[in-house]
Amino acid sequence: MSNVAEFVEERARRLVEQDLADGILRVTLANPPANALSVAMMAAIGSALETARNDALVRVIILSAKGKLFCAGHDLKEITAARGDEDRGRAFFERTMNECAALMQAIVTHPKPVIAEVAGLATAAGCQLVASCDLAIASTEATFCTPGVNIGLFCSTPMVALTRNVSRKQAMEMLLTGETIDATTAREFGLVNRVVPPEYLNQVVNKYAQAIASKSPLTLRIGKEAFYRQAEMSLEDAYRYAAGVMVENMMARDAEEGIGAFVQKRKPEWKGE
Fold first, then answer.
1. pTM here?
2. SS3 131
3. Quick one: how far is CA 109 from the chain centroid?
4. What domains are defined for the chain?
5. CA dist 194 to 59, 140, 187, 191, 198, Å?
6. Fewest CB within 10 angstroms: 101, 140, 157, 264, which?
7. What family is reported (predicted)?
8. What is d(CA 128, CA 107) in angstroms, rounded to the nearest whole number?
């Protein structure tokens, strides 16, 4: 590995912190105050997710952040610097948007459930990051916005995740006005699952993670994949697809064990198969 590559890899490692305990992997954005989704930050998060994909010790992933901001979206200083390139930044912009899209899809298609723990502001692509997670728990101090319209840049990519979480009218309200909404409004919109006092945020998120981590990892993988796939289908196709998934799930050893344990009134022993 070249010295440059080693430097980039080491920098990426410093941008996120990882902690694994009891099947729960906490990935923390650790570049305050903005925790911006620079190319390096997206690579660091993506690397953590990819490593966790095939790690049997990881059952659930929590995305959290250091500082007062959860994530300020793309690094505008990085974007501005790229305008000095011969192509006025086009190649860099394409790379940034493509890598961002890949990261968000990696969360949705990840075999392990991903929970966003939001203590502060999640703006633009930071809001997109929250919307891409399977669950989101927010502090009462958390806020959300897609303010690109205020600087002449419509939040088109955050829009993709946003419109898959909230109604069209609510999504357009956020996208057209660029205004910030509080955590309670975000819950009413369907962007987050729960809103809790700041002092209880970590505790509540861990409780959710522990409850999920206690389930069969095979069942979680099957269910998460099926959830997102059927959501894009017609009602008839969704039922046909889900019925097939259900049959295959019933054939799994973990389903046999789970049903047997329920009937016998004992705790199941998951094998992940």
1. 0.92
2. helix
3. 10
4. 3-213 (3.90.226.10), 217-263 (1.10.12.10)
5. 21, 9, 6, 9, 12
6. 264
7. Belongs to the enoyl-CoA hydratase/isomerase family.
8. 11
